[in-house]
Amino acid sequence: MSDASPDVPTQRGWYADPTGLPQKRWWDGEQWTEHLHDPERNAYGIDEGSALGARAAVFNNYLWAIALLPVVSFLALTSAETASPLLGWGISIGSVLLAFLDRRQLLRDGLDQPFHWAWAILSPGAYVVGRSVTVRRRTGASLAPMWVWAAIMVVYVLTVFGKVDQAAAAVAALGG
């Protein structure tokens, strides 16, 4: 674009809509896209963020793997009397690695400043929730991975309570 006029930006970003409407439109560095931003939305805590191309998938395999990791713990809990402590470490380390790869993929797909992978050190759930909310604010994507993770955790917690209740009943039967 060597003959760019002063009205055509050279850097990708949000600019006043060339149609004259009171909104911003995403310039991808070569052309105007269909992605729009209403400045009024910032008043409600919704970021401008970045516009992702039509090919970019905000729900990649890395995120789904992190969201589904509690299933591994659940299966270990229901199939064995005691789960190995190494399983917990493996899930923690795996979630951090997957979060790092997920963030890297989002950056490659054009999402500026995605949720940081280091939150997965705190817990896989912290990353799934924070990442889902951040991507929703920037792209309008659904919160599906967060809700899937939450549903799995509810089932997991209820199962743990059931196991504790069974153990308490067994102890009471021995003492009674």
UniProtKB/TrEMBL annotation:
Keywords, sorted A to Z: Membrane, Transmembrane, Transmembrane helix
Transmembrane helix is among the record's keywords: yes
Pfam families, sorted: DUF2510
InterPro entries to which the protein is assigned, alphabetical: DUF2510
Domain of life: Bacteria
Claim: Transmembrane helix is one of the keywords in the record: yes
Record-annotated membrane-spanning stretches: 62-80, 86-103, 115-134, 146-164
Domain DUF2510: 13-40
Protein name: DUF2510 domain-containing protein
Lineage: Bacteria, Bacillati, Actinomycetota, Actinomycetes, Micrococcales
